[in-house]
Amino acid sequence: MTRIGTGVHETDGARRLIVLTMPEPTVRALREGGYALSLCHAVGCDQRDGVPLVWAVLRDLAPTTTLAWTAETYAYAAAPPTPPRLCPVGAGEVVAVGADAATAPYDRPGGDPGAVTVLNTTRTPYTCGLAQTPPIGGDGLPAPYCAVPLHGGHLVFLTPLPRITLAFGTRPLRPGSPAGDIVGPTVLLDLTRPGPAHLGFDLHRGWSSRDARTTPVGLGGALAAALIERSA
Questions:
Q1: Which of 14, 52, 148, 170 has the highest CB neighbour number within 10 Å of its CB?
Q2: Superkingdom of the source (predicted)?
């Protein structure tokens, strides 16, 4: 049950901080226009059919908005309509999925040291993925940020990657919505290097930053490619 992971992964316990500044006219226009800020989280995955999800949706915005969270990874499995079952996990650990998508640490060694391994111990197909507590503005509970088919008796390798996308839009998105539903201007922020990241947004000019960790991202396939990194 050992393979090569994707490389850099999210370090559990790391403090993440994004400072977003906007001019007052933009803040007013966003509020009056019903805009929300959608955040997505990148992941490394060995499956071709992994789907990125909206991780957090924030509507309470100000000229200066601070997004802060601690990187703590959870693996989950789900069998709709039952809510996802989560289990705290770290790189190199294995999570066993049992009946009714119940998750628990696997009592046998053998996981990929650079990834989270999710093992389906049943013959029932489930959906699995990784989750993390979103920045201030959510309900304080871990939220899934990717969804991957988990076939009976199979396993999936997932690696949390320290990259976040941010986008404004008016579509009624919520945490768990497919990231492909995002249609607003999007920026990718690489948080591999520690320290606060500073971003600016203007409704007409879009995203701006002097931080070299930021990259504009196109929609559709470009967004999916930025959020799902295919592991070897």
A1: 52
A2: Bacteria
